[in-house]
Amino acid sequence: MRSTGESQTESLARLLLAKRARLSLITAFVLTLAIAPPIRAQVAAGITGVVADSSGAPIPAATVTTKNLETGALRNATSDATGRYLVLSLPVGQYEVRVTKAGFKESVRSGIQLAIDQEARVDLNLQIALISCSHSIPASSISRG
Questions:
Q1: Are 128 and 53 in contact (CB under 8 A)?
Q2: What SS3 string covers the chain?
């Protein structure tokens, strides 16, 4: 009878050890997940700025496109009512920023090197586009006289 009691004790001890091992693995996994987002955040950067016209007036609803020159990845943002834009969570690397808006010439700024946790400020000015208009008048409608 004593051997049966010892084997039950041993079985119970093994069961408790197995549960502890599983609990330890789960705890380690949860802690890894809890630590991972801050690590990921450290390898990201951002670009912010203001889009304005040549007089300094803000340009709302301009399309701002960032391009990672190493990967070709594009991210778009739109300037708000005060001309401000913000592009977050960009991988570190070399970037180009392009801004477009109907009625204005496109503006491009390149050579922007983003480092870990950096938020680069890139203000862009847009020049008014020249609008050309031409009229065609058929020769038959010209009176000669």
A1: yes
A2: CHHHHHHHHHHHHHHHHHHHHHHHHHHHHHHHHHHHHHHHHHCEEEEEEEEEECCCCECCCCEEEEEECCCCCEEEEECCCCCEEEEEEEECEEEEEEEECCCECCEEEEEEEECCCCEEECCEEECECCCCCCCCCCHHHCCCC
In 3D, which of 92, 42, 37 has the Cα closest to residue 66?
92
Paired tokens of 88: 């977050």
Residues in the chain: 145
The residues near 73 (Cβ < 8 Å, ≥ 6 apart) are: 67, 91
Q: Residue 44: pLDDT band by 50, 70, 90 thresholds?
A: confident
Instruction: Give residue 91's region: left, alpha or beta (phi > 0; psi -120 to 50).
Output: beta
Task: Supply the mean pLDDT for the chain.
Answer: 85
- pTM listed for this prediction: 0.62
